[in-house]
Amino acid sequence: MSDYTIIGKRMPRVDSRAKVMGKAKFTADLKLPGMLVGKIKRSPYAHARILNIDTSKALALPGVKAIVTGKDTEGVKWGVFAYTRDQQFIQTEKARYIGDEVAGVAAVDEETALKALDLINVTYEELPAVFDPMAAMASQTELIHEEFPNNINIHVNIDTGHVDENFEKSYYIREDTFVAPEESYFQAEPYAVLARFDHDDCLEVWCPNGGPHMKSKPLSNSFKIPLHKVKIRKIAIGGAFGGRSEICPADYICALLAKKTNCPVKIVFTREENTIATRQGHAMITTHKTGVDKEGRVLARETTCYMDGGAYSSTGPIATSVPFLSMEQAYRMGSVRYNGYRVYTNKPIRGMIRVHGRGFACGLDTQLDMIAEHLGIDPVEMRLRNSRQPGEYTSTKSYVDSCAMDETIHKAVEASGWKEKWGKLPPFHGIGIGTNSVQTGFPMGIRGGSQSFIKFNEDGEATVMSGVVDNGQGNDNMLVQIAAEELGLLPEDIHLVSADTETTSSDPGSYSQVSTFVGGHAVKIAAANCREKLFEVASKILKVDPGNLAAKNRMIFVKDNPEKCVPIKKVVRVSLLNFNSVNAEGGYWPKVDMKREWVSNPYGQMCEAFSFGTTIVEVKVDPDTGQVEVLQATAAQDVGYALNPLVLEGQFEGSVAMGGQGGMLTEYHEWKDGRCLNPTMLDYKLPLACDMPKIKNIIVESLDPKGPYGAKEAGMSIAMSAAQGYSAAVSNAIGVHMDSFPLTPDKILAAIKKKKSKAD
Amino acid sequence: MRLPRFDYLGPDTLDEALDLLATHREEAKILAGGTDLLVRMKKGLLTPKFLISLKALNELSYIKKENDCIKIGARTSIADIIASDLIQKQARALSQACEKIGAVTIQHYRGTIGGNILQNNRCHHYNQSDFHRSGRQACHKDGGKICYARDASDRCNSTCQSDGATALMALGAKIVLASKGHERTVDLANFYTTDGIMPFAIESYELLKEIIVPAEGGSSAYQRLAYRSAIDYPIVCAGVLLKLSASQKNIIDDARIVVGAMSRSPLFLAREASSLKGKKLTDTEAFKKAADASMNSAAAFAVHNVGATLEYRCVMVSEMVFRALKSAAQDAKA
Questions:
Q1: Shortest CB distance from B131 goes to which of A272, A670, A749?
Q2: Which in A287, A510, A523, A630 has the greatest CB count within 10 A?
Q3: Axis-axis angle for helices A521-542, A475-487 (nearest 10)
Q4: What are phi and psi of B252, to 5 degrees?
Q5: Mind listing the pLDDT tens digit for each residue in A66-112?
Q6: pLDDT tens-place string over residues A103-155
Q7: CA–CA gap between residue A247 and residue A279 (Å, rounded)
Q8: Adjacent-strand bridge partners of A68
Q9: Domain pair B1-56 / B61-118+159-333, same fold
């Protein structure tokens, strides 16, 4: 459809060359003069009162420059919301999970810092610990946080009304419970942070992040220094997946050590620390009760979910809501009641993750398949009868504008050969479908918008400033593509200054799937404003109305007479000769319901756009070992508009790896008394490239009226629906609807045997 | 994670290496690839004063046929073994096992067969960082008195997850242990202790020099199960050898079954294998019975300490043995 020059084209990412050649600098690569090595002393107990911390021996060790404990923090607490501030950056009273921060050390080298950790003598009094949300709610022992009875951290209640009466009207009702344990991100880059205070007492920080402005604000609050004095710098980032959206206690500890020593301090996490002491995905126990009419249309649904939140709140209210919201967006339902409980346990802290609520979503889809089977309806038809349609409101009153859910279903069905395969595959071969929807943004109040500045240099190239961060998904490239398109330049003419809180305006960050929609949009508007200025000048040179001008390939030309043109460089120079610099700004604030709040008022416009995805998976199960071979995954997503299909396909493939191949088949943690037994890449079974199936990518475009060029969230609907597709395919292959995820071979084999013994 | 400090010794000849071992004994460890040793050192599980590298000892890298035996130098890379026609034809189980070790890059650049046989036992309660192992009592292998994998166990139940050792034991391999001025040859099946703390019956001054694989005919096979297709230790594995009667080519004269990744050492199951004597190559019922018997025997040793569930791993012993027997029989027929 487009006559775009750069947008919509398969363009290799601007950052890929540096990354594949090993030239990109990550936080752990950085070295500053006089830099010290920081290490964190962590609690080896899951729940213990801290009686005393003796640092004298450690301080006496030559080479140790500073030690910080809870005494140095002035008791500051962190929480994403005012009502969830429950985490001290360094614990003073008690440790609540194995890995909780109790002290920090800065020393001349790593060996000395590690020795110092051993010399810090912490006296603990062990307390009874709980590792399961149900046990935690029933526990009679000391609460994990005094002020939260029954260890219930967050309760989200959503009720659209008429639920009970609609159940009564239902033709068929099912209630099923699904479980899935916690999971880890395994970002390629373990967490690291480098901090220093400069000569103006400004705090400068380099660290992987989901949004630099989401780091600067809490650091400004904690150190009681103005926001402009906290400078989060841009750095290459090796993945986030939702796990790096908040401030990390290590950021604070590192900065505190830097302040105390007056030297730059760098902390680099071990893989184990990255697994246990950053964030994990929540373990969930979800009960869905669904009532349908004769045709399988959902009339009423009641969902209750217990989430293992670990030791602290983190993004608790969001995390407790998103699994439900994704499903209420994906499927219509007459009425719904949701109760989500996030429960404290003495396990690592849980946060947002790319596939948030694998058991929740897979459970809901599995139950739809069970109902379809009972009613004799094909699973595809079952989804089409309940799928979200454009122009509707979700149950929690969000208007859904663009929506091509049905098209993703139809196209995935076509490409996967569903019609030839469903019900016709040989024994232990299976095919399954999953559908999902993801928010393009969360309500974030005054921090929900993004602003961009653009200035032209005298050589005709442009510098673009944006708060958007790229933590692996290709945001830098997205910004460059948009700016080049709008300004009529080539991508190499754009110099991007981004993700630096000193030079860029506030931005909501990349973890709510909003970077393109909001941050990209801001750049688009700024660039269009800047182009206007160029056209003003060019119109005088070319002696035509600015409205008749267009820009492309470094030239400004007359639309209906392209021969008549002037180089952009010349236009800039003419402007400068006339005492006018060429620059502009532009901002975008999504029109969401500012009164919507996760717990107190979970109704109203959530975000401006929603993405929709369908994944169909075909598998072969070995009936003697329970091992699954994935033959093909077909992934179709309504992304609004594909700004760069090449990058998008990479997102789809990564999503199938994370949501499906890993998340549904092999990834889970093993524990012993709150100790994680598989924190490393050897023992936590992430899929390897050679484990991946053939993937068919289908990009569906619905041209969202509000998104830049029509774009909206891209990729995450695949991660979510891939999980559902994998689970449905395995269930179909073995003829048992599975209710415990991931679908490891032992569970599959047990299900096959159970079914066989019943049949005998 | 940091590698603790050590002195690196790089002998040029086997004699020099044996001299160094004789001098440093317990204080030294052999570096023959390092894919197991260096990882354990990084976790602080051992802190040798000296590492004696076999890097320059090309004299220990060979595969040759002598009489009825294949002799393999202990420092031979896994990739060389996979590439060997001789091993593929006459010791198929070893070839199949080596294909599963680590990943192609590890097989090619680092991993050696000697290192694979001597890879230390593993346990998900033991192969952990200093931090993980703090805040609780030390286990047997860590110098303590308890076992987290089996309640009230008086010894260490760490698991031998060597693919190579399981296949080699099935093939009836012997190993040559050299020390200064001395050499001894032991049956691999007799090389193991009954305690996972130190699973190998080897002296600190001895060096694994050579592996001798009998090649008197017979067909062998190796099967293993893991979660991933590479960079994964087996959670169950089995190696088998079938020797056919000289007079009747479709009758099994002798069989060996070895089950790996289920105990402190690969389990040589002589009684279970003997049930196959005199059975036809096509007698899958007999294979199934031997496989089930193997499962029952192996299950007594196994603990939950290498991932998956214990129940699943036990059941899979039967499946892996059965598949290996079928594969070996198939190979024999061909």
A1: A272
A2: A523
A3: 20
A4: -80, 125
A5: 999 999 998 889 999 999 999 999 999 999 999 999 999 999 999 99
A6: 999 999 999 999 999 999 999 999 999 999 999 999 999 999 999 999 999 99
A7: 11
A8: A104
A9: no
Contact B225 A627 (CB under 8 A): yes
Q: Which residues contact B12 (CB under 8 A, 6 or more apart)?
A: B56, B57
Whether A445 shows a pLDDT value over 90: the answer reads no
The correct answer on CATH 3.30.365.10 for the domain covering A280-443+596-759 is: yes
Residues on chain A bordering chain B, Cβ-to-Cβ distance under 8 angstroms: 42-45, 98, 110-111, 114, 270-272, 624-627, 666, 670, 672-673, 675-679, 682-683, 685, 687-688, 690-691, 744-746, 749-750
Q: Residue ranges per domain, chain A? A: 27-127+188-239+245-276, 280-443+596-759, 445-588
Which residue of chain A is at minimal alpha-carbon distance from B127? A677
- CB-neighbour burial class of residue B44 (10 A; exposed 0-12, middle 13-18, buried 19+): middle
Decide whether A280-443+596-759 matches A445-588 in CATH topology.
yes
CATH class of B1-56: alpha beta
Distance from CA of A506 to the nearest CA of B (A): 36
- List % helix, strand, coil for chain B (3-state, nearest 5): 35, 25, 40
Residues of A whose CB is below 8 A from B1? 270-271
Structure tokens of B276?
């196959």
Q: Which long-range contacts (CB under 8 A, 24 or more apart) does B282-287 make?
A: B282/B250, B282/B329, B284/B326, B287/B322, B287/B325, B287/B326, B287/B329
Amino acid at A479: L
Is residue A225 packed enough to be buried (19+ CB in 10 Å), middle (13-18) or exposed (0-12)?
Answer: middle
Domain A445-588 has CATH 3.30.70.20: no
The answer to whether B44 faces chain A, any CB pair under 8 Å, is: no
Interface test with B, best of A45, A621, A624 (most B CBs within 10 A): A624
Tokens of A752: 């096959």
**This prediction's pTM:** 0.97
Provide the token pair at A192. Answer: 């690291």
**Interface A-B: count of C-beta contacts within 8 A:** 70
Residue pair B255/B131 in contact by the 8 Å Cβ criterion: no
Q: Does residue B311 sit at the A interface (CB-CB below 8 Å)?
A: yes
Nearest-5° Cα angle at B72, B54 to B67: 145
pLDDT of residue A2: 63
Angle between helix A716-734 and A358-375 (nearest 10): 50
Q: Under an 8 A CB cutoff, do A42 and B131 touch?
A: yes
3-state secondary structure A515-573: HHHHHHHHHHHHHHHHHHHHHHHHHHHHCCCHHHEEEECCEEEECCEEEEEEEHHHHHH
Interface TM-score (ipTM) > 0.90: yes
Burial A68-91 (b: 16+ CB within 10 A, else e): bbbebbeebebbbeeebebbbbbb
Query: Which residue in B328, B105, B280, B62 sits closest to A690, CA to CA?
Result: B105
Q: Is B292 on the interface with A (CB under 8 A)?
A: no
Q: Are A186 and A681 in contact, with CB atoms under 8 Å apart?
A: yes
DSSP letters for B253-299: EEEEEEEESSSSS-EE-HHHHHTTTT-BTT-HHHHHHHHHHHHHHHH
Label residue A1 by pLDDT band (50, 70, 90): very low
Name the nearest CA neighbour of A37 among A66, A71, A61, A68.
A66
Chain-wide mean pLDDT for chain A? 97
Fold topology of B61-118+159-333 = 3.30.465
* Per-residue tokens: A717: 């609907």
Q: Which residues of chain B have pLDDT under 50?
A: none
Class of domain A27-127+188-239+245-276: alpha beta
- Structural domain spans, chain B: 1-56, 61-118+159-333
